[in-house]
Structures are given as C-alpha cells and as structure tokens.
Amino acid sequence: MKHGVRRGWLAGAAALTLLSTTGTAARAATPGTAPGLAETGRSATNPGSLPLGPAGLAETRTTQDVAPGVTLTTITRGRVSPDDYWTIEVGIPTSSDVPPSPDPDAVTAVLGTHSAADAVVAQLSAAGWTGQAQPVSTPAFADVKAGVIGYRVRVGRYATQDAANAAAKQLKAARFKPSVVYTGFDGDSTTGPWVVRALTIDFHRFRGSVAESHDATLAGRRTTTQIAQDTGALAAVNGGFFVISENDGVPGDTAGIVVEHGRLLHDATNGRVAAILRDGGRRVELKKLWTGIDLVDEHGRTHRVEGLNRTPGVIRDCGGDAEDSPTSLPRHDVTCTDPNEMAVFTPEFGGPLPTGPGTEAVLDAHGTVVSAGPRTTTSVPAGGQVIEAIGTEASWLGEHAVVGHRLRLRTQITGPGGRTVRFGPNDSVVNGGPQLVTDGRVAIAPQADGLVHPDDPSFYYGWVLRRNPRTMIGTDRRGRLLLAEADGRQASLSQGLSIAETGQVMKSLGAVQAMNLDGGGSSTMVVGGQMINSPSDATGQRPVGDAVVVLPSRR
C-alpha cells in the first residue's frame, strides 16, 4: 500500500528536497546537520548527557526542525581511545575433541570452552604465534544471569585495520580461522566516539502521522531512502527484521508481524514484542503479540493456517507452533522449519510467489476457489488470494479446496493472557525486539526474545554484548514519539551500542518505553528524502523490508 508521493514539501521555513543519495554522499553529511535543514540550536560541550563512556567526555548536540512538531537531534560524544586497537579473533572449533581438530574445514565459533580456547592458543604457539584466551562475560539482564559465557582467542595488537588484515591473511595460510576486530566494538570500557540521532515527534504540534510501511510490496527489498521517497515521508528509519537469503524465505519479506491500515499482513513471531502505532502514531503500545489465522468454509468449519504472506514451511526467527523445528519459541536469526504447513498470500505480497512441492488453491475476490492443483501460480490475482500447502496440509487442501466453493480467511491478534488486540484503520504494527525500556526503567529480556541460542554463545556475544549500529523506537513522558539511530562499526566515527547501552541511551533520551528495531547494516535514518547517517556496510545503505515513516498531513 503505497502512500502518494509529494515532492518539495515545505517543513517550516526549510524546503525538503527529496534526493537520491549514495553512501558516499551521505557520509559527507555525517555527523553534521541534515542537508536542507536549518540548524536551530547547538549546545557546546555537554558532559555526561549520554550514558556512554566515562563521565566528562565532550558531547555536542545539534537540533534542527524537520517540520512543525518534528525535531532532529544529532549527538556526538567522546573521542577515539588510545587504548583501543585492531586485533584478530581466531575461530575455535566447535568439536568436543580436545585438542580440537586441525582440519581447516572444521566448523568454528568465536567463543568456546576454556579448554578449547587454550588448545587453540597452544596450536598458535606451535605455529609461531602468540595468542590469548580471554573470558567473555555478560551483565545481568531480566532473564540472563551475569557471568562468563565463554572464551575467545585473540592474536596481536595492530595500529591499523590494514596491518591486522595482513596478519590475518598469514594466519589463514597457516590453516587458522581468523577475523579482524576492533576492541572499541567489544562493549567494554571505551571513550568512543559515538554518533546518535533522534527524531522527536510532538503530536501536539505535528499534524501528520507515523506508520510502518513496506512500500509497494511485502516481497522484495528496497532502501529506507527509497521507501521514504515513495511514500512522501518527511523522515524515516528502517523498520523490523526481514528475510535476506532465499534459503530463509522470500527476500524482503518480514520476519514477524506486520499490520498496515488496521489489516494483518504477516503472521507474528509469536510471543515477541512489537510496536503498535495507533491513530497514526499518536499512541504507541509495546506488546508481545500472537496471531491466529483460519480458513473458514461455507459451513462455518475452520482449519488452522500457520503462515500469512510467507513461504510455507519456512519460519524466519521462529515463534511458530509446537511442530516447528528446532523450536516454537522466538529464536532470532534462526530459520525454523515445518514439513506440514499452509500459508495464504494476499495481493499485498506483491512479488513472485514461492513455488515447489505441494498444493495450491487460487481464490477470486469473492473467496471462490477458481483453480486448484500443484504450486505453479506466480502471482496473486487482483483482490484474490492464493493458498499454498505442503506435507499433510497439502493433502487437506487438495480435499477441501473445491472449485466453485468458497473459503474465507479469518485472522485474530492476541496479546498477553490471550486477550484480543483490535486495530483501527489508522493503526499499524512494526516488528522488532527486544523491549529496552518499560515504565521508565531499562528492562531487557534476551532469553525471552530469542537472543540466547542454546550451545551457541557466539551469537549472543556478537548480537547482544558487542557494539553494533542500532535503530530504536519509543515514547517519552509527554507522549512524544522517539525514533533513534546510532551509527556503529566505524572506529573513528562511531563505535555503536551494545544492547544494554541501547536501552540506557533510550532512557537518557527520555523514553519511558522503548523497543529495538532492526540494526547493524540496516540502521538508517532519512530526512527530506536523503540519508543522513553513515551505514556500516562497505557497500553503503542496505535494502530492507520495511520502514517507519513520518508522513505529512494529507489534509
């Protein structure tokens, strides 16, 4: 559902020209003012405002008016630390053999047991390298105890990334599995620097709206800049989690719930938090959501459907039903599978439908089955639906999808306690997680949100503990909507945030409730149709699945 494009819209006294940008052009504008916007305020050194690094670090804040009631604040804090450096992490074989196998094709992980890490250090020593086994600890979270989660192996201290890359190349030739890292990204003590941007939307003055938008289709990836331009947005940030690889579904399809204009368009990662933007963003609720989807025949009989606008049998980020493998719980960046599933596709899906073994039924705009057979249809008919099923569900569909008969799709969204959550035409939902701030307190539950992977502490280490680019959404005590973005993985520009720091930053920005959106290379902020941050991917702005857009009033 594409909003009308309006170019050259005036934001106060500043004309916002919608421009197509490249990563290079955007980096030139970082971390200063957003192009085309007048600077309305600047605070000089402002120690301690962001809870990052030691007290006393220099901090500068610049404010700019995007539109009446919409303010952009750009915060720069800290400086490059002389104690941070480039180093090399050496992969630790995941085999239980001690010492681990020297097989160069052995599967390795960043973290391992103490004994496995020591064995790699011994192998390095035998090859003429000096390595260290270092413990990695987590702070306490709501459902994770503080303590050591594993050990990493590091080699060397290098002044530049190029020098570390050269050493890593030698280690690889010696049959080790090296990766170059910067210690400023570790999540430990550093002086920065950091760059954080925050959009504050005050609906007492702003007459527009804020909504989730996947642009023209659920399928397919496009940049946040493109989504902002296509929807005529004053500003935008990247949205929720989505599919990147074809092995995990259809690229660009979301990994979790989507509601637009009050309509459910994608099944939820059941039990995972999402942001409900009610009445065009004027009220925001952060809530764990579940979806129930049924097919209803002419006699009122129902049959459960697992998927909505996603590939049957492939559940990105999991959170499905009890038959899914390896889990029915949320498991971030894991694709669960189910050999017996049914999914319904609506016109909003847009892109080519997934095909393969199984059965399909094509419905017209009245819900009447017009054809049934193998999964060969490539697109959803205007106003209609396509039902796809695999395994035992394919057998059911083959028996019950009779040409000329009618089937109706019925959806329900529930919250904690099984209570029905209802939506109006100006409501939308963007997926994400974890929740960062609740009732003004930093409260993060990585286990419940699927960020703890059994037998794989390396994922938790990289996603939760290490600093990465992050994008966040929340509200403050005055009911203002906050959209924030932190650049990261750029040693001399911005280190990024650990997930604990992400919660602390949102609290410091005034959030009484806040949720993490997709981050890493996806983290993007657009103002006036132009990207204003510095993405971490070497290729520049990453195409994403959806965005949160700030739209001008259409009245």
UniProtKB/TrEMBL annotation:
- Region annotated Disordered, chain positions: 27-56
Q: Which Pfam families match?
A: NAGPA (PF09992), SPOR (PF05036)
Question: Which superkingdom does the taxonomy of this entry point to?
Answer: Bacteria
* MF term (GO), any: hydrolase activity, acting on glycosyl bonds
| InterPro entries the record matches | NAGPA (IPR018711), SPOR-like_dom (IPR007730), SPOR-like_sf (IPR036680), TAT_signal (IPR006311)
State what protein this is by name: Phosphodiester glycosidase family protein
Signal sequence region: 1-25
Identify the keywords attached in UniProt to this record, alphabetized: Glycosidase, Hydrolase, Signal
Domain SPOR, first and last residues per copy? 98-183
Q: Where is the composition biased (Low complexity)?
A: 27-41
